[in-house]
Amino acid sequence: MDNIIELKNVTFEYTEEDAVYAAVKDLNLNIKRGDFTVVLGHNGSGKSTLAKLLNGLNKPTHGDVLVDGINTRDEENEINIKRKVGMVFQNPDNQLVASIVEEDVAFGPENLGLAPDVIRSRVDDALKAVGMYEFKDSTPHRLSGGQKQRIAIAGIIAMEPECLVLDEPTAMLDPKGRAEIIETVLRLNKEKGITVVLITHYMEEAEKADRVIVMNDGVIIEDNTPKEVFKNVESLKKVGLDVPQTTELLYELSKNGFEINTNIISIEEAAKEIKNALHLEEN
Ligand code: ADP
Ligand code: MG
Questions:
Q1: Beta bridge partners of 6
Q2: 20 to 30 A from 187, CA-CA: which of 34, 133, 163, 269?
Q3: Contact at 8 Å (CB) between 244 and 204?
C-alpha cells in the first residue's frame, strides 16, 4: 500500500455545552509512505485536531481514518495504530518522564514489553539517530529545549513507528533548537525512511518538504510542493500566513517590474535568481 494514512471525508466536531464546532470539515487526505509533509495554518485552523486524527487520539465524528489500512475506530488495534504513528508535541518538558535520558527513551519500548537487550539496542539506535547518544546518562532537565525535544523524538523513534507526526515541535525553541529539530526530522525521513508529518507555523521549516498543505478554518486550501505553495504570496497572506522572507523579497521585486521567479525559498537560489535578473556574472 502506497499510503500509510488515508482520511476519507473526515469531519471532527467539538461539543461544548450545546455548541457544536467543526474543527475539521469533510477532509480527504492521503499521506504517502516515505513522504515529508508540512502542514501550515494560522492558530485555530484545525492543525492539532488533524494531528490527533492521524493516530486515533481523535476519532472522526464523520468519515474514516485508515492507518496502514486499519480503521482508527477499531479499538482492538488501538495500540498497533499508536505504534505505527508516533506523536511529538510542542512542549518537551511534558513529554519527558524519567530523570536519566536513556531511561526516558526506554519508556516506550518497555511498555511494548520488549526484551531487555532489544530495548537497549533500540534506545542506543534512537539516541544516535537524533544525535544525542553522548547524553544518554544525562539528566533531561539540564538539557537545552532543542536537546530535550530530540530526546522526546528518540523516545518515539525507539518504538520504531512508520510515521512521525510532530505538532509544532519547534514552537517553544530558540532558532538554534528549531534548526536542530528540523535537521533531525529531515535525517530520520531521508535515512530511516520514516514518513513525517510536521505541523508548524514557521514557513521556513517547509522549505525542504516534499509536500506542503495549508489549512484554514478546518479545510485544506493548498496542497502542493513548497515552491508552488509559496508562489501564492497574496493568498497565503490572506489566511494569516507569512511567506518565507526570501520569497517575499523576490515577490516584492517582481511586483515592481523586475523580471524574476518568485517560487524560490532558499537564500542560495534567491541570490542566483537576483544575479541572473541583474545580468551579473556567476562566481
Ligand atoms: P490549531 O492547532 O491549528 O491551532 P486546533 O485544531 O487546536 O487548531 O483548533 C481548531 C479549532 O477547534 C479552534 O477554533 C479551537 O478553538 C477549537 N478547539 C480545539 N480544541 C477544542 C476543544 N477541546 N474544545 C472545543 N473547541 C476546541
Ligand atoms: Mg495546534
A1: 30, 66
A2: 269
A3: yes
| Atom 21 of ligand 1, residue of closest alpha carbon | 14
Is the Cβ atom of 43 under 6 angstroms away from ligand 1? yes
Nearest CA to ligand 1 atom 22: 14
DSSP state string for the chain: --EEEEEEEEEEEEEETTEEEEEEEEEEEEEETT-EEEEE--TTSSHHHHHHHHTTSS--SEEEEEETTEETT-GGGHHHHHHHEEEE-S-GGGT--SSSHHHHHHHHHHHTT--HHHHHHHHHHHHHHTT-GGGTTS-GGGS-HHHHHHHHHHHHHTT--SEEEEESTTTTS-HHHHHHHHHHHHHHHHHH--EEEEE-S-GGGGTT-SEEEEEETTEEEEEE-HHHHHH-HHHHHHTT-PPPHHHHHHHHHHHTT--------SHHHHHHHHHHHTTPPP-
20 lines ligand 1 (CB under 6 A): no
Q: How do the pLDDT tens digits run along the chain, 283 residues long? A: 799 999 999 999 999 998 999 999 999 999 999 999 999 999 999 999 999 999 999 999 999 999 999 999 999 999 999 999 999 999 999 999 899 999 999 999 999 899 999 999 999 999 999 999 999 999 998 999 999 999 999 999 999 999 999 999 999 999 999 999 999 999 999 999 999 999 998 888 998 999 999 999 999 999 999 989 988 888 888 888 877 788 888 888 888 888 888 777 788 888 888 888 888 766 5
Say if ligand 1 is within 6 A of residue 90 CB: no
Hey, what's the cell of 141? 532537565
In short, whether 23's Cβ falls inside 6 Å of ligand 1 is: yes
Tell whether ligand 1 has an atom less than 6 A from the beta carbon of residue 199.
no
